[in-house]
Structures are given as C-alpha cells and as structure tokens.
Amino acid sequence: MSRDARWKALLELLVERGRLEVEEAATELEVSAATIRRDFDQLAEQQMLVRTRGGAVVHGVSYELPLRYKTARHASEKHRIAEAVAGLVAPGEAVGLTGGTTTTEVARSLAVRSDLSAGSPALTVVTNALNIANELAVRPQFKIVVTGGVARPQSYELIGPLADGVLGQVTLDVAVLGVVAFDVVHGAAAHDEAEAAINRMLCERAVRVVVAADSSKLGQRAFAWICGAELVNTLVTDTAVDQETVRRFEEAGVQVMAV
C-alpha cells in the first residue's frame, strides 16, 4: 500500500471512529506500528489530526475530510449514481454542478457521453468546484462557467459573495447537488455554511434540482442547510436505500431513483 493510499485509509478510519490507536490501525492496514506512528506524526504536522499518547483523534469538533484525502468509499455506488444522473441531462442544457466526490463522478460521466461529443455547446456547465472545471475545461464542446469566490481547500469549491454576481445572471436547466446529508424533514445539507449558500443559489437558479447521494447520507443531518426537500425534484441513490426512506421521500414529492 502506498503512503498516499495509507493516509487516505487512516483518515477515513479516524473520521468514522473519532479516535485511533497505533496498534489498532497497524492491524487493520497490515503495516508495522512504526509506520503508523510516522504517518500519524506527519499528518499531525499538516493539522489533519491531533496526536495523542498511543494514537490520534480527529482535528476539531466538527470534522470534514478534505476531498483530496477521500478514498473510494462507496465507489461503485457513486459511479452508478453518477451515470444515472448524467442520463437525466439532455444535450444543450445548462447544468449546475456543486463540488464533491459524487458530482465529480457526474462530471466524468457527462464527459464521456457519446451524444455530448460535439455541439456548440453540447453542454453548458456552471460550477463553483475548481476540480470539476479543470477536468471539463479540456472538452472544447462544453462551455464551462466558473463562479467567482474564495477557494475552500477541503472541497475545492469557491465560496463567498463574489459568486453572487455570476449566479445572479444565469438560468440553469438542472442543478446537481452533492450533499453530506439529505432528510425529508431537514432537507439537504453541507458541512460549511458558505458552501451551502452557494449550493442553495444554484438550486434557486435551476428549473429542476437533482440530489446525487449514496444511501449512507439519507436520513442524516448536517450543520449547514442547503434547501428543503420540497425544492428537490429527483433523488438518485443506490439500491441499499430502505423502502421506508423511499416512501417518505416520494410522499414529499421527490422522485427516487435507486441504481
């Protein structure tokens, strides 16, 4: 296992459990305790965790794993979700994409669609995610519009009032939201309030709103509210979603696609 892969795995375990002991991590990753101690020390220097005697704890009370350290958890589910979401987009439409691992997969699925290989433009993509804009900018048939704002290192998203000037002047056919939580009562949410505000504005500028979220995020709550469930037209999730959750969303007027 490479150091990068090991660090991603360690941080994922740390987010799940809140605390990790050296011996525990060494056993799970099948490496030596000395290697884990060195990893913990180096990650602590980057302020990715807090070192403790014999282990480490998450950095801060409300912890969000930065995008660059996220592993391929639920990778197959996210890929299926992304392909299904991409299939909801018609050629020539204007699409808003928020940041996140699932929406990044949506962007990649759009990029390889054969019916979007040509056009002027084949698709207009409005995003506040620098990594998504970077991946799609090499597609000359796509018109890429990037909001202004200040880059947020955890998610590569541009946030703040500078984005308002761009989003206030566009109209979208569809906004695709990547969320950390989506609940019938509490709506869609993110970790960061400034990020949520930009995502909310994308929703308000769109004719229809699609939430792309694996089933682990459903029925959950997060700090920063994006929008209520009544604003969401379609939820695309994986087949692990339980039927009671599906029923509640459908009763709230949300079409559920489980793929």
Question: Overall mean pLDDT score?
Answer: 91
Termini separation = 31 Å
What is the number of helical segments per DSSP (H or I, 4+ residues)? Answer: 9
Report the count of strand segments. 15
Percent in helix: 25-40%
Oligomeric description of these chains? single chain
Give the uncertain stretches in residue-range form.
none
Taking Cα atoms only, what radius of gyration do you get, to the nearest Å?
Answer: 19 Å
Which features characterize this protein?
35% helix, three-stranded antiparallel sheet, seven-stranded parallel sheet, alpha/beta, 259 residues
Question: How does this model look, in words?
Answer:
It is a single chain. Helix 5 (101-111) packs parallel to helix 6. The model has no long low-confidence stretch (mean pLDDT 91). This protein is globular. Helix 9 links the parallel strand 14 (234-237) and strand 15. It starts with a helix and ends with a strand. It has helices spanning 3-17, 22-29, 33-45, 75-86, 101-111, 130-136, 164-167, 193-204, 243-251, and strands spanning 19-21, 49-52, 55-58, 94-97, 123-127, 142-146, 150-152, 157-159, 172-178, 181-183, 187-190, 206-212, 224-227, 234-237, 255-258. 35% of the residues lie in helices and 25% in strands. By secondary structure, the chain is of the alpha/beta class. Strands 6-5-4-9-12-14-15 form a 7-stranded parallel beta sheet, with helices on both faces. A 3-stranded antiparallel beta sheet has the order 1-3-2. It has a 3-stranded antiparallel beta sheet with strand order 10-11-13.
